[in-house]
Write a structure and sequence with these properties.
This protein has about 400 residues and is an alpha/beta fold. Helix content is about 55%, strand content about 10%.
Length: about 400
């Protein structure tokens, strides 16, 4: 499509499909926004790229939106606060085949836009900038460097994305992958969500080294607020690490110590006493409940996303049904009930006075609770799976 003198097509109707949309979220950036819009439009014009510049005014009180409009940008007003909210509005309004995202604070070089576009034309579905080897003096404080390094490391530990600078604010993607990404977060964690979702959808991700310059004006990033929000979202995106792994860490030692206490087993000179049996039983019950939460979280996610062939939960779901969970839970509960009945009969005849009876009472209660947990968790897993389609 041919470009006009300002890097935009002559047909500027709302339904015109462009080659690229440059999206800039904006909150009180009056000092920078005109320069940002001018630079973006200049790059489009210089390279004869058919495109548009979209500024999302996120409740600015300094007239940033009006300044951006005068500079030639399409201004979208988003009332919902938050970095993610601004981007969601901008992505929804974008008409480009490709979308380039930058912060409106002059920290990124607008002349890198053609490099991002070239990478997508070569087959990349998402392109992410890598600032880590090109941070100019004064551009990123030491605690933010450490925080970015830690959060990116945790993200790659949980999801193995291979992205070196997961929270870089300059990135690009093809518009046709937006529906697959299903982005929803409204705060700074939007950056993490995009990388996680892209990895889960197996998008072709390319990383490009870029420079990172000192920003103009005041930063909106609050490290000790936004960092935990990133971490929280990562954990919510990974039920395995949030539920299943901690649950297993509790169930295994809880079960082992309980068996040692009941069977009078001594290991390395230590034999669990009654207090250890009580503690291990509580740990076992807690771990089993957390494991159940993890399975339900997986069932919910996969019920929304559809069957994922090869996923471990798919294999489990294909082999186990509600009847299996109910039967197993019933058997565990019946064992506990049988122990409780025997113990009750003994107490009626001889009273409740031996240490063995106390251990038996704890074992009976633990098994009853576990059996009930298993049965009701099986029912909940089945309910969550009602929306699933057949693989």
């Amino acid at each position: 499509m041919s470009a006009s003198g300002e890097g935009v097509p002559a047909d500027d109707s709302p339904n015109t499909v462009r080659k690229v949309s440059v999206v800039l979220p904006c909150l009180n950036e009056a000092k920078n926004i005109e320069r940002c819009v001018t630079l973006a439009r200049g790059v489009l014009e210089q390279h004869q790229i058919d495109g548009e510049v979209i500024v999302v005014d996120n409740n600015s009180s300094d007239g940033s939106g009006e300044i951006a409009a005068r500079a030639g940008a399409t201004v979208i007003h988003e009332q919902r606060p938050g970095y993610g909210s601004a981007y969601l509005a901008g992505l929804d309004a974008a008409r480009g085949k490709y979308i380039v995202m930058l912060d409106a604070d002059l920290t990124y070089n607008f002349n890198d836009i053609p490099r991002f576009l070239a990478s997508m034309e070569d087959g990349a579905e998402m392109v992410i900038g890598d600032r880590m080897d090109n941070i100019k003096p004064g551009a990123m404080r030491i605690h933010r460097r450490v925080g970015n390094w830690l959060l990116t490391g945790i993200l790659n530990l949980l999801f193995d994305t291979g992205v070196r600078d997961a929270h870089c604010g300059m990135r690009a993607l093809r518009a046709d992958v937006l529906e697959r990404l299903d982005l929803r977060t409204t705060g700074m964690e939007f950056a993490s969500e995009m990388v996680i979702r892209a990895d889960k959808e197996k998008l072709r991700i390319t990383q490009i080294p870029i420079e990172y310059s000192p920003r103009g004006g005041e930063s909106k990033l609050l490290s000790f607020r936004d960092g935990p929000r990133h971490l929280r979202h990562m954990l919510l995106e990974s039920p395995y690490h949030l539920f299943l792994l901690p649950g297993a860490v509790l169930v295994v030692p809880g079960g082992v110590v309980s068996v040692m206490a009941l069977a009078h087993i001594e290991v390395l000179g230590w034999r669990p006493e009654l207090s250890a049996l009580v503690a291990s039983s509580l740990v076992l019950i807690l771990g089993a409940q957390i494991l159940a939460f993890g399975l339900c979280a997986h069932a919910h996610r996969l019920s929304l996303a559809g069957p994922v062939r090869g996923h471990w939960y798919e294999h489990m779901r294909m082999r186990l049904r509600l009847k299996h969970g109910l039967l197993f839970g019933l058997c565990v509960a019946l064992v506990g009930m049988a122990i409780a009945i025997v113990l009750a009969l003994q107490c009626l005849n001889h009273g409740f006075e031996t240490l063995a009876q106390e251990r038996a009472a704890i074992a009976a209660g633990t098994l009853l609770v576990l059996g009930i947990q298993i049965a009701f968790s099986s029912c909940l897993l089945t309910i969550l799976g009602f929306r699933r389609t057949s693989p």
